[in-house]
Amino acid sequence: MSKNVLPSLLTLIRSTPNLPPQSWYLIAGVTLSTLNRPADIPHVFRHAIEQDGVSPEQRLAIARRMREALVKAAAIGGLPKSINALFALKQATPSSLLDQPLEYSPTQRSAELYDVPASRILSRGQSFFDQIYGKVSKRVMGQMDRSGTEDLGITARLMYGYVLSNTSVLTAAESSFVLIAGLIPQDVNPQLKGHLKGALNNGASVAEVRAVREVVVRLCEASGMTRLGEDASSGWGWRGEVANL
Predict the structure, then answer these.
(1) Confidence at 40, pLDDT banded by 50, 70, 90
(2) Spatial separation of the C-alpha atoms in residues 184 and 122, rounded to whole Å
(3) Looking at the whole model, is its pTM more than 0.90?
């Protein structure tokens, strides 16, 4: 994607009908991170904070929301991509908009890790998982427990407990948008289907979820992804139609 194209694309994305307010930069940042394009993330951030009428308080909120989205994206796209994305974002972030270690934490994850009983955090994560997957949640978790190693289920419980279920900065619905943005570029329809429905369970509307999907697909296509045949032996894209509601 050309750097000359990205600003106009971001402007177009911001005006997507039914896209939830203040979600476009979260979705764009996570999509670009998953596409392994960390160098594009500062452009998204600057496009968000340099709009007319954005106050210093709003700039801080945008910075924290983008960082939290990229942290949560690690559960879907992998920690290395989130590391590179967050480091790229930091380079573009004024020092006044950074949260320093041992100072105020908007998520309170450090306190949750060291001061809160693990059982409480894991219970919150299980509730969040159950809310996303609804009536099939026990079956889905059971499948992971019986995947050949129960450690897969344990990993999911840790991710949901300590990372995904924390809604101090992003709402449950916004967290679902982050997951959708991280899944679509990876062509993993089985998981995407569950999280499209999970976004509804987390309070989003059908129109909002479809708008999020549209934005992610548009960014992926602008980055070079295409529709591949199911029998394609090479290429970068989707082997079938991207799941939808």
Answers:
(1) very high
(2) 27
(3) yes
